[in-house]
Design brief:
- The structure is a single chain.
- By secondary structure, the protein is α/β, with parallel strands linked by helices.
- It has 8 helices and 5 strands.
- The protein has a 5-stranded parallel β-sheet, with helices on both faces.
- Strand 4, helix 7 and strand 5 form a beta-alpha-beta unit.
- Helix 6 crosses helix 7 and helix 7 runs parallel beside helix 8.
Amino acid sequence: MVILNMRKNPTIIVFLLVITSISFLNIYFFFQEVKKFENSVTNINNIDGIVVLTGDQFRIAKGIELLKRNPNKKLLISGVNKNINPVDIMKEFPSSINFFQCCIDIGKDAKNTFENIIETFEWMKSNEFTSIIIVTSDYHLPRVKLEINRFIDNQQIFYEAVKTDESDSILRLKKITLEYIKYIRTFLSIKIGINE
């Protein structure tokens, strides 16, 4: 019945084709935005601190790697589950225990990306930092940039992308598609002035 109605009213078909085309274009541009972060900034000599947004594996390892290259910096691991003991994180990085004792802060207040950025903003203020590098998965960075702009307009923010494992292309596609949906939701919430 619906198909018959659509045949009688070609306007509906045109409308659906336009919406579909726009959706595919948006997804394409999102993929291009993700690719922009493939050549991330790794020289952080002039940056005050490093922030790792927890989530996918290897993010913390990447943050600690940057800290080792610049041991006079500080590192925030944002969004750690409140039930996780910091000692358990330290055990995962036995060669970096000294850094946990002097230079690594563990943030447990954030439960999502929006709260990650709030936690980051407060950490920057408390340390009087004006420039940081954010470490997270490559597909996550476009949405992180949107959230950053809510709070940190005039600061120097740089990004280090952690490339996700591409051996499972279907899993990566699922992750990017899900992140695209979250990106659109965040974009719309910013446009209409809603905090997540």
